[in-house]
Fold each of these.
Amino acid sequence: MNDQNKPPNKEPSGPQDELKKTDQEIARKEKFQRLILGGVDPFPHKVEKTHTASEIVAQFPPLTKEELEANKIQVRVPGRIVSVRQMGRATFFHISDGRAKLQVYLREDVAGPKAYELFSLFDIGDWIDVKGVLFKTRTGELTVLCDAFTFLAKCFHPLPEKWHGLQDVELRYRRRYLDLIMNPEVGEVFRVRSAIVSFIRRFFDQRGYVEVETPMMQAIPGGALARPFSTHHNALDIDLYLRIAPELYLKRLVVGGMDKVYEINRNFRNEGIDSEHNPEFTMLEFYEAYCDYNDMMNLTEELLCQLSRALFGKEEFPYGEQTISLSRPFRRVKFMEALSQYSGLAPSRFDDRKGIIEFAAALAPEKKPSTFGKAIDIIFDKHVKPQIVQPTFIINPPKEVSPLAKAAKDNPDEAARFELMVAGMEIANAFSELTDPAEQRKRFEEQAEERKKGDEESHPVDMDYVQALEYGLPPTGGEGIGIDRLAMLFANRKSIREVILFPLLRPKE
RNA sequence: GGCCCGUUAGCUCAAUCGGUAGAGCAGCGGACUCUUAAUCCGCAGGUUGUAGGUUCGAGUCCUACACGGGUCACCA
């Protein structure tokens, strides 16, 4: 920020909204002012630390009491004060760096009466930089015997209760920083998420894939069937859409000869919000030339199996009440077989298209299924999806709901496509990419017909993409994997909001 | 968007049939130099989400609204 953009000078040193302050907030502000009067720098620039709390907790506990006494290990460690136990002229407190807690022992006769008095101006929640020697208490807890400390930052609000933490889910999402301070397992979830993403990058990088970034703002929002967010570019005076998928751009790159590409980035879909859907979500998409969807299945198994090993050291892990096993090979079952198996409808009944539409209409009358494709989607969602716990490739769904996929080799009505279901969630979706420009154009036109009939989620016509195909897309396998759902799976969370740091909420007040 | 549930002190939760809104933690004052949910004594802290209504009297019953959660619809 340059100086001209700065807001007019306000008092920088305190919480906003003076009127609403509680007695505790007033007390904290007063202590802060007394610290400043005592010559303390209220906003220091830098900490010359020797360790973080996590590093100390990871490194030194194996040393015995005697070894610690002999070695006199000097440390200087910053952290947030998370608990205080004061006993006259001595005080124990814990500091935290967000991951690990470290105990500090402050004695008046060690730190000096002046410093000891100064510490009474610190509150739970304040940041402090502690200097001292490591030792072990009578109960064996590794502790810093503090001889000096520095003020780092004031916490002007009282923290939530130490024993129960912060429970209110709304507050947890709106003030995720409080959630992270109070609930250490939350930080762990996002470390798992980060580990997943970096593992995926390594996995594809090692296989010669190139990570690319394609437009988030698109004139034609293609690559999936969903309603987009729209926006406007002023200088060009054009309407644009936030992308619902990167697919068509990634395949343009394969046309250009980038034969292995992947992208991990945000997609935006203007749809409902629930425990599996956030309007912005993160998608991995990857495309490999000369491959078909069978190769993608093998690659997916390898990725997930290795990912499980990297995270847990094994191929099994808990999800809710279940134990998920990612051992290869995953079950593969044809869409129509899964449909009749789980719905209890005999395979022959699916020859009666009208009858199936009526069956689906009875299952979900609000949806008013008009086509066979929509009808079997309903039956799939109601009967099949919730029952699949262990990883299962649902292969060769009907072609009509797959406008960007090749037809299956042995059946022109089926798509060369699979969806990977785990724990009732759709984790991945892949197909042998449609490479025939004339066929692609025809499929777009069919979708355009659907749109005219009022289907807002039909695929828009993208003639520029057809033109790209006319330059020749080699046989290509492509896949999308929902990163948020993967994170839910591996972090054992039932809501997508638990794996998105700042899920979309309605603004308050 | 429909339906169900929730919203009480900074936080976590109580409050019986509609009858003076309580506790623990956190805070403030005091005691205490190995505590760890420290302990002990005392004190303070509330427009019960918002706006109406019923009633002698509403945290409690009714209506509307706000926000959140669940579920259904839509979707990945």
Amino acid sequence: MSKTKLDSIDRKLLDLLQVDAERQVADLAADVGLSATQCWRRVQRLKEAGVITRQVALVDRAKVNVAVTVFVAVRTNTHTEQWFNRFRATVEAIPEVVEFYRMSGDVDYLLRVVVPDIAAYDQVYKRLIAGTQLFDVSSSFAMEELKFTTALPLSYLP
Amino acid sequence: MSKTKLDSIDRKLLDLLQVDAERQVADLAADVGLSATQCWRRVQRLKEAGVITRQVALVDRAKVNVAVTVFVAVRTNTHTEQWFNRFRATVEAIPEVVEFYRMSGDVDYLLRVVVPDIAAYDQVYKRLIAGTQLFDVSSSFAMEELKFTTALPLSYLP
DNA sequence: TCTGAAATAGACCTCGG
DNA sequence: CCGAGGTCTATTTCAGA
């Protein structure tokens, strides 16, 4: 893996592609002031370097009936590797869990879960605690999603 | 907007496209057992119905130097609409904030922020509290991202 | 060596059956 | 509803700087 140096044109391309990956090469080229060929090569390099990992379709949460977001803060008192592996496997097998972090501080793990309603959340909750022994689980419901973007800020480029 | 009924083939298509939107129609068609034309029509309909909202490029967090994730829990004691509008505008203008929810319970708002390091987070923090009067701000750092997916679970389809 | 224009290949999308 | 062909786009090649 080479030292990926990204200049301002790469940055512009990423900015555009993070918002809409369907744009045509010629179109992008015009926006960044490059020939189509050159632009195509840039995008190719960004993919090969692993800067762009992949391209995905985003789906409307309400339209697939998972409008409810729940954050689940988990604390444990069993800090063994065995416990962790089991917990991790449990969580990864639950498709309703879309994010899963190991945290510093008070809470040990934080999960973001998407479900249709509270009843469905209860099912997920049961699956979670069935897998492993948890010390404390605290669920917070999101009332409204005010911002959600997959576009990362590009002001800190290497 | 028509009542979007999604059958098991739509579900399969969404499942595939949520993971990789670059797959070719003929390829998808083979996987779901449809003719290319029919498959193309399905995907088209999913887009027109707004089930698929758009297609984006996902970028490697480490490669663009925002490897650190911070969750910011915000509490306020100024529950006016004017305050909210100001806060919302402040938050939306900060590209480091990638998620922003209004919560029930103890915490009023939850933000997910991505930055290169703690110093950079401090800058974001300052921008946050500069915009509006906040009662309490509590930051938790993620040590490790164990799971992150943009793919929603499709077991609750309408 | 690098650029960009033009050829090629291949996928999308439309249309007739 | 299906497949075949026309059209458009990505990709490669190649001549020139």
Amino acid sequence: MEETKNSAGIPSFSDQVPTTLSSSGIFDLVSGDLAATGSIGFMELLGLEELAPSIFDLLPPLSLPPTSLPESSDAGNPPATPNSSSISSMSTEAANEEQAREVVEEGEVVEEQEEQGKIKKQSKPKKKNQKKERQPRFAFMTKSEVDHLEDGYRWRKYGQKAVKNSPYPRSYYRCTSAMCNVKKRVERSSDDPAIVVTTYEGKHTHLSPVVHRSGSSVVPRDRFGFASANAANFLPMQITQAHYQQQPYLLSLPPPSLNPCSVPSTASLLQYPPYCTPSASLLRDHGLLQDILPSDVRKEEYK
DNA sequence: CGGCTTTGACCCGCGC
DNA sequence: GCGCGGGTCAAAGCCG
């Protein structure tokens, strides 16, 4: 197939040196398109110890009609936050919260069963009649030169495919933890190679294996089970809030488990542990953002 | 030697 | 029905 051909000529990002970090927008989780749903942009810096300098270049707001918004997601396991700036968006496979939750729950059960069976089957006798239930997904865009962002979990790459209409390949990762079916897809935007689109699928069933340099192996995690220790270092609260307000239809509540925070899921990616949950007052206060973005930019972003 | 990446092959869903 | 593209498998190779 052409994939072979493409992958052969695909540049290796791993060769690149991480330098710029910044933000992004929202995109359609279903189609995978960089379909922004509103104007948002921002970032979050994490795992900076490994990534270089924290340069924030705000991306222009992406825009897209809400109708292009996805199926759902949520309940997914949004990442804690990659080691670079990012913006996230939740999508919902169901039209509303309730439906979304149903889908999520059912999907999880089905997936688990299938997954287990799949693992043993050598010659992929995948289900035929059964419609593949999609795990809730959570995606976000990150401007970074490193494609595989650190999020506190260990991932094993299990595949790579050339992406149509894009010179960049898409990589598939699976959480290395046993019994954890979380998957992650990483690809670069063909429009802007600087942007890395990461899609998480599923929910972690374990604690982050990440061991903090400080020695602690327990890091704060967001409601989806993603390590969020890093998030505390840089909190794009404004964006989170803005997103929440602009995309209420994306909301859907994930199962209470693994949910240390009680904030709406849309903000998940930028979520913080309970002790750092953004307050309502931050909605107006630009906080960190003010220090980073010009006022006119902020205006653009949150209007 | 174990864990991870690479990569070609295969399966499946979907659109035409 | 067919072809395409996305997603996954699994053997082989690499690396610490």
Amino acid sequence: MEMQSDAEIRRGPAVLEGVIANLPMFRAAPRQSLAELARHARSQHVHRGTAVCRRGDPMAGFYAVAYGMVKLALRTDAGEEKVLRLVGPGETFGEAVMFLEKPCPVDAIALADSLLVVLPAEPVFALLERDPRFARSLIASLSQRMHGLVADVEASSLRGGLQRVAAYLDAHAESGENGVARVRLPTTKTVIASHLGVTKETFSRLLRELAQLGLISVARREITLLERSGLADIARNGPKAR
Amino acid sequence: MEMQSDAEIRRGPAVLEGVIANLPMFRAAPRQSLAELARHARSQHVHRGTAVCRRGDPMAGFYAVAYGMVKLALRTDAGEEKVLRLVGPGETFGEAVMFLEKPCPVDAIALADSLLVVLPAEPVFALLERDPRFARSLIASLSQRMHGLVADVEASSLRGGLQRVAAYLDAHAESGENGVARVRLPTTKTVIASHLGVTKETFSRLLRELAQLGLISVARREITLLERSGLADIARNGPKAR
DNA sequence: GATCGAAATTGAGGTGGATCAACTTCTTTC
DNA sequence: GAAAGAAGTTGATCCACCTCAATTTCGATC
């Protein structure tokens, strides 16, 4: 523990700078600014299942994920939760809240042991003051995020469950070894289900429905897309428009 | 027609500058920058029911509403629509899309005869380059917008219809003449319903339910909040937790 | 103030997805 | 590698909200 902490302190700054430099919003920033940010940043290790911050917490900066995965979720008093976003390596969260200087509106929970980089607000504001290109990147980043949110609203208010699942699989396809399209779910089906706006039970049934249509085959978290075009068709036109 | 156009050209710039100066994001901008922006801006009159822009259109700038009202909505091929936001006087839309340099993701339809101010991207980018305070305001504005979207997602995925209606009324209450809280719906119930994520039929029934509970009384678009606390209670805790 | 189209209400009936419950299969831990 | 717990599946049932259809009311126009 003592030794690990020691090692982190020694190699910390360089690692931090590396993580920061690879964030999309800092791509255009000069090296000196990055070093400056890294000097004020700190790393934070969180274990699987623990909260990075909870709704209502003050937010004195924003977070970047170095490795691991964090879910941003809303929860009701009754314990139901809606996953807003899954944040993976190289992605950030909390920027918008930092600027509003309001308490955190969501829960952020680590889904895996994760290393986060915390960027305090002040140095970011300072950089903003001095580097218009950074401002531009940050604005682009926020705009992108907003576009994603609008897409989610569109999906969950205008499309049915099957359509959303099909669209999700289509959007997350990677081509596997022999050119076969596959999706590896980044976390549990329960969490994915909540992200897609259905219960785990319904998600399970929808996957089975797609499998019975011969469009996919499911093995644990590995999903093979057997008929990409049919899947894309459902994603676009829904189940009925056969 | 010719005369009106003439008049607009003459007094246009001053009016435009006035409208722009009163937008939250330009509050901190120096007068000279405002004049500069106003010089590149143009006004656009749209009649009730006509489209300002449609999904897929290129967006070479963003819009401010001087008077009137615009709805931003997503629509399905089948004609159903989901209203994302109602934009009234002194509010803006299209900033995020402008920065993404992507086609417009929503339809923008005038709900009343409206005067819009169109701010082309280039001068905004230029101002951004030169005035960090403006960048800060713009970022704050986008963050605010995002916060609103998240709140909408929360409402429509975690709360039931009655709860959403109650929350809407509670949030939009103004105190009328004799200190009685009232809400004047800004547009048709059909549009409000879509904004709240229910059909007009359901909205009608939910209002009636609240009325039968003695919490409100409805007269056309004028709604009187008879028991503010009971309404707020439903908004927070739902109908069951009596 | 009569007329016509849009908006709103009301009723009857259907349904997508939630809920509840039992069980199976993974995963983690000691 | 056994035990305990988390995640996933499956079936039965339920319900909030939607859909369809018939009026009624409102609001603009002549």
